[in-house]
Design brief:
The structure is a single chain. By secondary structure, this protein is mainly alpha-helical. It contains 8 helices and no strands. The longest helix has about 45 residues. The radius of gyration is 30 Å and the shape is elongated. About 15% of the residues are buried.
Length: about 190
Amino acid sequence: MARSAFLALFLVAALIVAGCKDKEEKSAPRGTASLMEEVAKAEYRPPADGRLTERQVEMYVEVEARSRKIQGNDPATADLRAAHELGVNPKELLWVQDRVREAESAGAGAILDSKIQESRLRVLRFLEEERKKAVDPGRRAEIDRQIGELRGLMKGSRPSLGPGVRHNAALIAKHRDDLERARGGKEG
């Protein structure tokens, strides 16, 4: 009797250990290779207009926040791990990340362009005042040349952004605070 009780207890313990081990394996962090397989298998068809949706930006913010928490020893795949944990399509995430970077670059470029134009306007005003004061015809001709070059530069500013990029930049700007918090740059 003692032997059968011991055997039953041993079998129960073995089943419990096996069950725990199976649970550990399922919850253990996935390897990089299995993450890459998941990305390769995933399908996503981006919209033709290249516009992000509100939901996609919110998903991006969630993934950024989760990624920051789980970076650990493998920061290169933290965003894919976060996407997996949150049930986000990895190919959609990659597309959204590209659109966010594009929109942020466009926003930074527009700010820089604006500052450059302001600076050129100040120089142009200065040159126009100098031209009024110039008595020497050679000096006046040189100032006219500089004014002409400057006006040419001001006309040749960056090409305008497409409607999709403008839309995405506005959407990203709307979520700027959430993005900064998710990236760890701003306290909530």
